[in-house]
Design a protein that fits this description.
The protein has a single domain (16-173, 180-191), classed as Electron Transport, Fmn-binding Protein, Chain A (Pnp Oxidase, Chain A, Roll), CATH 2.30.110.10. It has 5 helices and 9 strands. It has helices at residues 23-31, 69-77, 118-132, 145-149, 209-217, and strands at 19-20, 35-42, 45-52, 54-56, 59-65, 79-92, 100-114, 151-166, 184-187. Strands 1, 2, 3, 4, 5, 6, 7, 8 and 9 form a 9-stranded antiparallel beta sheet that branches.
Length: 219
């Protein structure tokens, strides 16, 4: 298995035993969600914005309007950092100090460029939508010329990344195990409920197979 090399940029300093640099594991964590948080600096002020993304190999795609402040800032700087986090459980210890959470998180660092080639840009938009619901791009009306031209698509080439994972039970001080206090883990996960059809659907239009598959896979 290939790893990202450890550098000052991606090194996990706090809790290094939970650090993962394996590329396959990092990609799996990235592929298990479609929402990331992107950090950037605007006029000296640090800002973090959530946005949808799609991944293809070592590329991550995000999109926004032509005047999107974050997108223009990233394009101007030419580099970006984004993070994703899955909250998998509450770790409720005997002591307040040792309360924690089980999670899978990734930080990605890379170079940013504007996607301008029309086919590449359309493929990137399809990647983002299909990352949300696999295969759903073929079920929708695709962007018309006006929508396409009004959308800015950025590609982040992953230069390096790291993951941090906690997947264990309570860790208390030795003396606290003798206390008559409940401790344990409350597992958490995001689930999908049945789809709620739009009120204005034409008669006879049903949920696409891809939507039903997504719901069934995430119940």
């Amino acid at each position: 298995m290939a790893d990202y090399s450890i550098s000052e940029l991606n090194k996990v300093v706090r809790g290094p035993k939970r650090a993962i640099y394996d590329i396959n594991t990092i990609n799996e964590i990235l592929d298990d969600t479609f929402l990331c948080h992107v950090g950037y600096v605007f006029k000296g002020q640090a800002i973090v914005i959530p946005t949808a993304y799609g991944r293809k190999e070592d590329k991550i795609y995000i999109h926004g309007s032509l005047k999107n402040r974050m997108m223009l800032n990233l394009l101007d700087v030419g580099e970006a950092s984004l993070s994703v986090t899955h909250l998998d459980g509450l770790v409720l210890a005997r002591s307040a100090f040792h309360h924690s959470a089980n999670y899978r998180s990734v930080n990605v660092f890379g170079e940013v460029r504007k996607v301008e080639n029309p086919k590449e840009k359309m493929d990137a938009l399809a990647c983002i939508l299909n990352h949300m619901v696999s295969g759903h791009w073929d079920n929708v009306r695709q962007p018309n010329e006006k929508e396409f031209n009004a959308t800015l698509v950025l590609e982040l080439s992953i230069k390096t990344a790291s993951a941090k994972v906690r997947a264990e039970g309570v860790v208390d001080e030795a003396e606290d195990y003798k206390l008559p206090i409940w401790a344990g883990v409350v597992p958490l996960r995001q689930i999908a409920n049945n789809a709620i059809s739009d009120d204005n659907l034409q008669e006879g239009v049903k949920e696409p197979k891809e939507v039903l598959d997504y719901i069934n896979q995430n119940r």
